[in-house]
Amino acid sequence: MPKRTGAPTQRKGSYSAPALDKAFLIIELLANNPQGLLASEMAAALGRSLGELFRIVVVMEKAGYLQKCDLTDRYTATYKFLDVAYRATPARKLVVTAQPEMQALAAAVGQSCHLVVAKAGEGLVIAREENPGTRGFALRVGATIDLIDSCSGHVLLAFASPERADRLLERAAAPRGAPFDADALSARLAQVRTDGQCRRQSPITRGVTDLSCPVFGFDGELLAALTVPYLEVLDGSQVATVEQAQQTLGQTAERISLALGWRPADRMPTA
């Protein structure tokens, strides 16, 4: 049974829409429990009666935002949320523009790639292209990325405006159980800005070198990080070396940026 600690709580404000507020709380709760929850578990976590919550869950299921597992009776959020987000935000144009270039990138370097945007204190994978070969390493769409420790996160922090970077870093640091070395991170981000890209060994997966480049839009606005988790195989049968993959990645990110309205004369403010 999920604990109530850290569970979403009732919002306070001048206007009240109880049913809608409960729906938002359910969404946030399921976002933190991707394995799914029983209706009774959601009620307990949110401090609500099963009756008042169940009616809302049924409506959300009928609308296609939740799905119920026939074997476990657990509810999970569906990809309809992601679809609506694509169509309602600039992410749709970003993905539509980037997808053909990502397909060409994956084929050219023989590696998967993914596109990451900043969401509150995390990075969110909004598109991916798998390696067309027999081996590869890829992240799923909807996966969240640690901004402080990841290559994608370092690109998003390094090339955001100083004010936005500070807000992202504050939110990213809040849920961490241990402090991080702020001075080391600052030096790392400065180096990423100087290099125009990020390259580092994956902190999670052995044998993977993460490569990431910024994608810009109109007036030099940072939109996303385009990342290749470069998987080195033991037989040396890679289509491209890590250096070649890094160069091709940079060229791809630049073409996507140009298609989104960026011009080389545009410069983002740096910290």
Account of the 3D structure:
It contains nine helices and eight strands. It is an alpha+beta fold and 271 residues long. The chain folds into two domains: 18-78, Winged helix-like DNA-binding domain superfamily/Winged helix DNA-binding domain (Arc Repressor Mutant, subunit A); 89-259, GAF domain (Beta-Lactamase, 2-Layer Sandwich). The chain has a six-stranded antiparallel sheet with strand order 5-4-3-8-7-6, with helices on both faces. A hairpin with a 2-residue loop joins strand 3 and strand 4 (122-129). The longest helix has 19 residues, at 91-109. It is globular and about 60 Å long. The protein starts with 17 loop residues before the first helix and ends in a 12-residue tail after the last helix. Mean pLDDT is 86; it is low at 1-6.
Summarize, please.
By secondary structure, the chain is α+β, with helices and mostly antiparallel strands. The chain has helices spanning 18-31, 39-46, 50-62, 80-88, 91-109, 151-159, 162-173, 182-195, 242-259; strands at residues 66-68, 75-77, 113-119, 122-129, 144-146, 198-201, 208-216, 222-231.
Question: Beta-sheet strand percentage?
Answer: 15-25%
Question: CATH class of the largest domain, anyone?
Answer: Alpha Beta
Number of helices: 9
Fraction in helix: 40-55%
- Principal-axes geometry comes out as globular
From the alpha-carbon coordinates, what is the Rg to the nearest angstrom?
21 Å
Low-confidence stretches: 1-6
> What is the CATH-assigned architecture of the largest domain?
2-Layer Sandwich
One letter per element, helices H and strands E, the order comes to HHHEEHHEEEHHHEEEH
The CATH topology of the largest domain turns out to be Beta-Lactamase
How many extended strands?
Answer: 8
Q: Assign the structural class, choosing from mainly alpha, mainly beta, alpha/beta, alpha+beta, or little secondary structure.
A: alpha+beta
Mean pLDDT: 86
Strand order in the largest sheet:
5-4-3-8-7-6
Q: CATH superfamily membership of the largest domain, which one?
A: GAF domain
- Tell me the number of structural domains: 2
**Terminal CA distance:** 45 Å
The biggest sheet, with number of strands, parallel, antiparallel or mixed sense and barrel status, is:
6 strands, antiparallel
